[in-house]
Amino acid sequence: METRDKILDVANEQFTQLGVRYVTMDDIARAAGVSKKTIYQEFDDKGRLVYESFKRSMDNDQAFFEALHSEVSCPIEHFVLISKYIRSRFAKINPLVFSEIQRYYPESWKLFQDFRNNCAVRTITEVINSGKEKGYFRSEINADILALIRMDQISGIFDPSRFSPSEYNILDIQMTVMDHFIHGILTDKGRELFYKINNQD
DNA sequence: TACCGT
DNA sequence: AACGGT
Questions:
Q1: What is the pTM of this model?
Q2: Strand C contact with A64 (CB < 7 A)
Q3: Is-contact A139 A128, C-beta < 8 A?
């Protein structure tokens, strides 16, 4: 269904950039070049449209993680690429959106939390375990606990009340936190490879 | 597009 | 008054 995709594209772009409550159904209809009636034929109400549009982008994220998993064999490189992807992904989302859906769209909020706590955390856990097996990450670390900690770090980076956007930029925080975290889990062998990877670009 | 209810 | 919904 072509129009449904178009509506979802437009809705997702406007919601993430401007905020869910700021964007009206009239705005989306106009930008998508359809009537409001067409939107309501596809989606029961605004809450469903919000839900479906976020679900769609999280399905894309999951597909991206799965592609990385099969294409990247080096756990250190894999770890860095995941961090980069999450940063670029969150950077496009107006932080306002998170508080909005938490308050006004509980189903979408639950979807987001499930994605974070299951898909994202599991992906990080797998990479840490793979690095342990290959001797790049210290064998004594607990991958489950550290994956949760890493997830909290990544979320915290984008929380404007923790890192004021006027004082820090996302890229600097991301690099600092990522560097600190990975040094805590690298073996000597892993550290060598990490430096080699960092110096080749 | 005009309109109604919140 | 503005916006979701018809």
A1: 0.90
A2: no
A3: no
Q: What is the pLDDT of residues A111-153, one digit of tens each?
A: 999 999 999 999 999 999 999 999 999 999 999 999 999 999 9
Q: Residue A141: its pLDDT value, please?
A: 98
Which pLDDT belongs to residue A1? 75
Name residue A186's beta-bridge partners.
Answer: A137
Note whether residue A7 is domain-resident: no
Q: Is the CB of A99 under 7 A from strand B?
A: no
How many folded domains does chain A comprise? 1
Q: Give the nucleotide at minimum CA-to-C1' distance from A27.
A: C3
Asked if A121 contacts A145 with a C-beta cutoff of 8 angstroms, the reply is no
- Give the 3-state secondary structure percentages of chain A, helix then strand then coil, rounded to 5: 75, 0, 20
Whether A189 is covered by a domain: the verdict is yes
Q: In sequence order, what are the residues at sequence separation of 6 or more whose Cβ sits closer than 8 angstroms to the Cβ of residue A127?
A: A75, A78, A79, A82
